[in-house]
């Protein structure tokens, strides 16, 4: 089974790119982030026409997450991350799909740092850590997939010295990500590519993609019960080079 995550950076504006990737890559399950579309404007029809069931949590102009499946119905288990009933951002959706619990997330960017946006990022991360601990304790097969907006190590960022003041590379954010891994989660892409510079995001400016001046901020974490089933993890780098593509590339894992 192939499970992917893709920050589409506007699902309607980049719909041709998304549909092309779904046709060519044919992931069994796909998690999308940064839909930038209200609930009623999500392009459900074209996605279902490709054979995918889909659920989504939209928001006008910002955020938004979705889960797609072509291997069975999606049974939504959670809409929104627990821990703050006043949080209005559409950043988390969770569902059972084909025997696996899928958590699709879009973690806050947090810039500028310091400031209220960074404080919100850390509070959101704390809520994710608490929920992830419960998921591990349940011993279910779980995948947490999405745009985490954090580069875990210096290996995950081109010229790390330029990012020391950025919220995506802040010590607090990196420590929060490390706390997740200490719970027993496996960073699938890094586990398959130890010591390798491998990126999932390239800015639109300064020919970042052409220079491979990238960041690794899109992650798939697999729970302890799935670790032995992990066969492969890759980035569909070529998609980033398509016309009118997102600044992220799709990332996927393969499970036995």
Automatic annotation (TrEMBL):
Q: Where is this site: Transition state stabilizer?
A: 149
Q: Which keywords are on file for this protein?
A: Hydrolase, Magnesium, Manganese, Metal-binding
> From which lineage does this chain's organism come?
Bacteria, Pseudomonadati, Pseudomonadota, Alphaproteobacteria, Hyphomicrobiales
Q: Which residues form the Endonuclease/exonuclease/phosphatase domain?
A: 4-248
> Where is Mg(2+) annotated to bind?
7, 34, 147, 149, 247-248
Which NCBIfam families does the UniProt entry name for this protein? exoDNase_III (TIGR00195), xth (TIGR00633)
Q: Does the keyword Metal-binding apply?
A: yes
Q: Which GO terms describe its biological process?
A: DNA repair
UniProt xrefs under CDD domains:
ExoIII-like_AP-endo
Question: So where's the catalytic machinery, residue-wise?
Answer: 106, 147 (proton donor/acceptor), 248 (proton acceptor)
Protein's UniProt name: Exodeoxyribonuclease III
Q: Provide the GO MF annotations for this entry.
A: DNA binding; double-stranded DNA 3'-5' DNA exonuclease activity; endonuclease activity; metal ion binding
Q: What is the free-text note on the cofactor? A: Probably binds two magnesium or manganese ions per subunit.
Pinpoint the site Interaction with DNA substrate: 248
Q: Which family does it belong to?
A: Belongs to the DNA repair enzymes AP/ExoA family.
The record's annotation in SUPFAM superfamilies points to: DNase I-like
Write down the InterPro entries for this protein, in alphabetical order. AP_endonuc_1, AP_endonuclease_F1_CS, Endo/exonu/phosph_ase_sf, Endo/exonuclease/phosphatase, ExoIII-like
């Amino acid at each position: 089974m192939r499970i992917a995550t893709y920050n589409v950076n506007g699902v309607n504006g980049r719909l041709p790119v998304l549909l092309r990737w779904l046709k060519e890559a044919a992931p069994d399950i796909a998690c999308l982030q940064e839909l930038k579309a209200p609930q009623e404007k999500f392009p459900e029809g074209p996605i279902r026409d490709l054979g995918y069931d889909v659920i989504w949590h939209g928001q006008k102009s910002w955020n938004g997450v979705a889960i797609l499946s072509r291997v069975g119905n999606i049974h939504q288990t959670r809409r929104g991350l627990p821990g703050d009933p006043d949080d209005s951002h559409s950043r988390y959706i969770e569902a059972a799909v084909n025997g696996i619990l899928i958590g699709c997330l879009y973690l806050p960017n947090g810039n500028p740092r310091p400031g209220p946006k960074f404080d919100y990022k850390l509070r959101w991360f704390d809520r994710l850590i608490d929920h992830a601990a419960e998921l591990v304790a349940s011993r279910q097969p779980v995948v947490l997939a999405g745009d985490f907006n954090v580069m875990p190590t210096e290996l995950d960022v081109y010229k790390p010295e330029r990012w020391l003041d950025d919220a995506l590379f802040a010590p607090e954010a990196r420590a929060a990500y490390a706390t997740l891994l200490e719970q027993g989660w496996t960073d699938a892409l890094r586990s398959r590519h130890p010591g390798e510079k491998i990126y999932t995001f390239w800015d639109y400016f300064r020919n970042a993609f052409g220079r491979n001046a990238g960041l690794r901020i899109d992650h798939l974490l697999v729970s302890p019960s799935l670790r032995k089933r992990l066969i492969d993890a890759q980035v569909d780098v070529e998609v980033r080079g398509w016309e009118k593509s997102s600044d992220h590339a799709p990332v996927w894992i393969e499970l036995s």
